[in-house]
Amino acid sequence: MKKWTLNSWKNYPVKHIPEYENKKELHMVLDKIRTFPPLVFAGETRTLKKQLADVVDGKAFLLQGGDCAESFAEFHPDNIRDTFKVILQMSLVMTYSASMPVVKLGRIAGQFSKPRSSPTEIKDGKELPSYLGDNINGIEFSEKLRKPDPKRLFKAYSQSASTLNLLRALSQGGFADLNKVHLWNLGFLKKSPEGKRFKELEDKIADALAFMDACGINSDFNRRLKTVNCFTSHEALLLPFEEAMTRIDSTTGKYHDTSAHFVWIGDRTRQPNGGHVEFCRGIENPIGIKCGPTLKSEDLVKLCNILNSKNEKGRITLISRFGHDNVEKFLPKLIRTIKKEGLNVVWSCDPMHGNTIKSASGFKTRPFNNVVKEVKRVFAVHKAEGSYAGGLHIEMTGKNVTECTGGAQKISEKDLSHRYHTHCDPRLNASQALELAFLISDEIKKNSQYSKNIIQAVS
Ligand code: PEP
Ligand code: CO
């Protein structure tokens, strides 16, 4: 294999990276970003990789979630806090069902750039470049704002830094204390069926904590009861920016992309001979690969070998996203290939991207039932193939939006226009996200019992 350098990706074909008109300005911006502090630290990234290695071994479960695209308009401390709350709530439900740790990974603090199915958009007979994410151009349908603007990268960097700052404070500063679970329930959730179920869980946890306290174990003495690790992730799409954020870790001499703990390669940019794969090959971060219907088994093996030549556990997470009625058609073959080759991977399920449809009124939406169906089918296929379903990857928000239809709130197609705020794909709202966690808790329970039996059988 050829030598990897920070910019060797430029020698390979790349898709979905915009052409900036003003190259001089782009280079000025990138040179400045190269001097900015890292957003995350190499040691944290290594911790995440270790936790993902536990997922490979069936000893933990991965929950990855957040916006499809973060935006400048939705940047608000309440939004960050509420997304974090829902991640905590979901992971509590999952930890309780599975009796195993849940690795919490936000699609947050840097998830801006989007690959689009069409390079242009036509409205009222006018054609303009598509919206590519707030760190590239503006969502407003105007010629000026749709031009890729390098200066947007400064704003995206600064938003990511303050988002991370709040996430660190929330996860380490006492908010995540198990004694405070009652604070995690969002106002509008309290009256809903999920809110009530969550309250029951809260009561059980309070009982368990009271018992532990009586035994002398409490959050004053045990940090793990009052803090959580919350990691960040985004799609490594805009390589000039990722390159500028990649630094040598002084303790190991290895390259880390310090823009997030975990980055993934999208379904549209995972060509084994493409620039995105080349870039990710040389960084130490855990890497996700989106696996959609067009992924061939041979290419999956190639990708794992290029990106993880040492077959290190925790380095690769395969994120399947086939659509609810395509799971049985595509997933078993890939699982068999991975097993046959003895490749160490986390298998995660993205039940969002294969289930997007257009409503009669023109909104992109996802029927909640289909999301649930895909997750259940993925669990069933893994079980049948003797493989461990290790994670869930969702687009969600802590807000009470109306972007996906269905769920206990019975959001109809007509309701979509009420609170449709996403800058790209439709997200589960807080109630739907928590409902999903409850609806799959039986699967998670069986899945973890099954993996514990395997661990016992081989040890
Ligand atoms: C995404 O996760 O936002 C995305 C674009 O997904 P995919 O690459 O799977 O289409
Ligand atoms: Co999306």
What's the SSE pattern? HHEHEEEHHHEHEEEHEHEHEEEHEHH
Low-confidence spans: none
> How confident is the prediction overall: mean pLDDT?
94
**What would CATH call the class?**
Alpha Beta
CATH topology value: TIM Barrel
Under the CATH scheme, which architecture would be assigned? Alpha-Beta Barrel
User: In oligomeric terms, what are we looking at?
Assistant: single chain
What percentage of amino acids are in beta strands? 5-15%
Shape: globular
Largest sheet: 8 strands, parallel, barrel
Sheet/helix structural class: alpha/beta
The ligands found in this model are:
phosphoenolpyruvate, cobalt (II) ion
Spatial order of the strands in the main sheet? Answer: 1-2-5-8-9-10-11-14
Radius of gyration over alpha carbons? 21 Å
Attribute tags:
binds cobalt (II) ion; alpha/beta; 459 residues; TIM Barrel; binds phosphoenolpyruvate; 13% strand
Fold and architecture overview:
With 459 residues, the chain is α/β, with parallel strands linked by helices. It has one domain: Alpha-Beta Barrel (TIM Barrel). It is 39% helix and 13% strand. It has helices spanning 23-33, 42-56, 77-98, 152-172, 181-184, 193-214, 239-244, 275-281, 297-307, 327-341, 368-385, 430-439, 441-458; strands spanning 61-66, 102-107, 120-123, 126-129, 230-235, 246-248, 255-257, 262-265, 287-291, 316-320, 346-349, 357-358, 364-365, 391-395. Strands 1-2-5-8-9-10-11-14 form an 8-stranded parallel beta barrel, surrounded by 6 helices. Strands 3-4 form a two-stranded antiparallel sheet. The protein is globular and about 65 Å long. Cobalt (II) ion binds next to loops.
